Amino acid sequence: MDRIQAMTAFLAVVDTEGFSAAARRLGVSPSVITRAVTELEERLGTRLLARSTRFVRLTETGRVYAENCRRILNDLEEADSTAAGTHAAPRGQLTITATVNFGSMYVAPVVHAYLVQYPEVAIHCWFIDRNVNLLEEDVDVAVRIGELPDSSLHAIPVGRVRQVLCAAPSYLARHGVPQRPEDLVQHTIVTATGLTPTPEFRFRNDVKVRLQPRMSTSTNESAAAMAVAGFGITRLPLYQIAPALQRGELLLVLEDFERPSVPIHVVHREGRGASRKVRSFIDMTVQALRQDPSLQ
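The structure assignment produced for this chain is given below.
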């Protein structure tokens, strides 16, 4: 097997975290993948992968080598594309993921702009409220909200999300503006169960207030609609209600007691060797999210 094929097989093992899975991806037998990686390690005189019956993991040398392999293979792809006259045209299939609400509100518009600009790319959007495993589920790019665990993935910070309490001016005129978290027990509360699975709001300095919501709902949109209608106070991500705030339909309350905001990252697995289609999508997404004032 030549060196380029061996590098491709090695990266398939890295991305799928298994020899059998890599073989399925490339349409060859597991023995072919095993032989390719073994030949690479023998040529280099070092171990690239730590293997056991339960897992396959990169060694430190393997991690550096994998990044170099991605860059080399990407350079070859770009050389071929340039020779074919398609250097400026990303092409192929992209799979991206984000949460349902954030994906619909912020990622989908980027997808639309990207597809208009690059007609030779098709995108599969996986908007779902769980952290998709990019390696195991073959996803190219994710937009993640919250602190990230240590991993081999590459993350680009693009903004932050505040969880805010809000109500309509008409509600606050009738019932008054709460001055402290404890005042909420005297108010009508609407909770979005995806955001607040238990009827308890937490605030800065570990202050907790247990509440009895008049309404609980499975969607942020319906909680926001009830607040706009003047029914009560709800807690939602700032980006969810930014348009209503701008129109004066909602006002923020208890801002001084908010918990710290959480980061937003664009996450991908390819590092410096990312393909042109992935790099161009990441660049467009990062620019769009960093320019949005409701995410800062």
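Interim note for the steering committee: The chain has three domains: 3-83, 92-159+262-295, 163-257. The chain is about 40% helix and 25% strand.
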